Sequence to fold (504 residues):
Amino acid sequence: MIKVVLIGSGNVASHLIQSLKNNNSIDLVQVYTRSKKSLENKIDTTKITTEFSSLKEADIYIIAVSDKVIEDVSNQIPFSNKLVVHTSGTMDYKIMNPKNKRGVFYPLQTFSKNKEIHMQSVPFCLETENEEDYNVLEILAKNLSKLVYKIDGKQRKSLHISAVFVSNFVNHIYHIGHELCKKNNVPFAILQPLIEETANKIKTLTPLQAQTGPAIRNDENIIEQHLEALQNTTYKDLYQKLTLSIQHAKKL
Amino acid sequence: MIKVVLIGSGNVASHLIQSLKNNNSIDLVQVYTRSKKSLENKIDTTKITTEFSSLKEADIYIIAVSDKVIEDVSNQIPFSNKLVVHTSGTMDYKIMNPKNKRGVFYPLQTFSKNKEIHMQSVPFCLETENEEDYNVLEILAKNLSKLVYKIDGKQRKSLHISAVFVSNFVNHIYHIGHELCKKNNVPFAILQPLIEETANKIKTLTPLQAQTGPAIRNDENIIEQHLEALQNTTYKDLYQKLTLSIQHAKKL
Fold:
């Protein structure tokens, strides 16, 4: 059994705790959090510590905290020569204290408090400072998920930018659709099958092949009608920019 | 059995033909197309006509052509007092010739040639000029799909704008993710679970509740790193605009 200590209590940490504690091949030895309350009902309280000095021995320490405090947390781990990994899409493993063997354990998914995640389908992007540490990190990841990738720092940073586009920005565009529906007394649920099909389509077509709509058809008449109907200047601006970008991509 | 004549051979028409001809409660009497070749292998050739003067009698005529030619096609139908509907998200039924009873039969989905559609899950937005025609249009729609809505012209136009956002623009953002992956030698497939989860999340959370990422966290450090890494000026501009729009929506 791989012994794991997890540090953190945010969205990523909470979802990881849920998966780690239910896994028969993993021993979640301990979780560090600043306030015990943040992990109430999520794990046996005897496994929680609020003191770095009380951290127990483990095979892997997972630092699942916000980017800004990864470095500081890594300095507080009272051990050396242990495998310590963070879960950030952006930060280099080198920001962590070199007294330990470092790596990255990046789950590429959107985690929210009130939404369960099927961890077996979350892609894990792994990187280790030393080749010989990769195996144990991979065993841990493969116990949690079917989708495990060896991804270097440069690739991971670019994946994170792509993730911001295809998840955070896409979700915000759903929000714009939601607002427009609310304003016009149409149930947002009508759009759900379209949203699902748009996401599914690109499993078999490239997004370029899958593109439909007035922009790609150069349907200036519809585009003008839509711009006229949009009163929110931000939405109007985004409509114009995205339309031009679709038309530009078509020409390349 | 409802007798249907379909006019058109594009993406929407092709998918409708597929569903209509396989439905035991519907008699697809005839399909009009300008060139027989466009419907090769899609329907028994004896059912195809290229002459409006040869159009047969039916209960419903579905005009599934591009917005610009709906009016002209409606003028060519050699009958009067029939139920004639178009499939456009934007056009008023009043653009069609008033010699017939008019309506709208708008399937709210993204249709591409090489991608099958499960028609039972396509929302149909219906509207009829005369109340008494609604029933037969509804029966037709309910034979094709589980999701049938009565939607007036104003609502439909707003739904179409929302659909451009949540489907056409979202797909283009997938394209941006695809391009970034290609450029950085990362398989785009790694992003698929994230794309699916982002689409699924909003079944149980509002898009505002579901929002994650550097913009909503006001993580200026990451945002700056991402902007610096993005070389394409269009992508950089969209990144900035969408980030500001997310931050603005949070404050409302």
In short: Chain B touches chain A through 97 residues (CB under 8 Å). Residues 153-183 of chain B form the longest helix (31 residues). The longest strand of chain B covers residues 26-32.
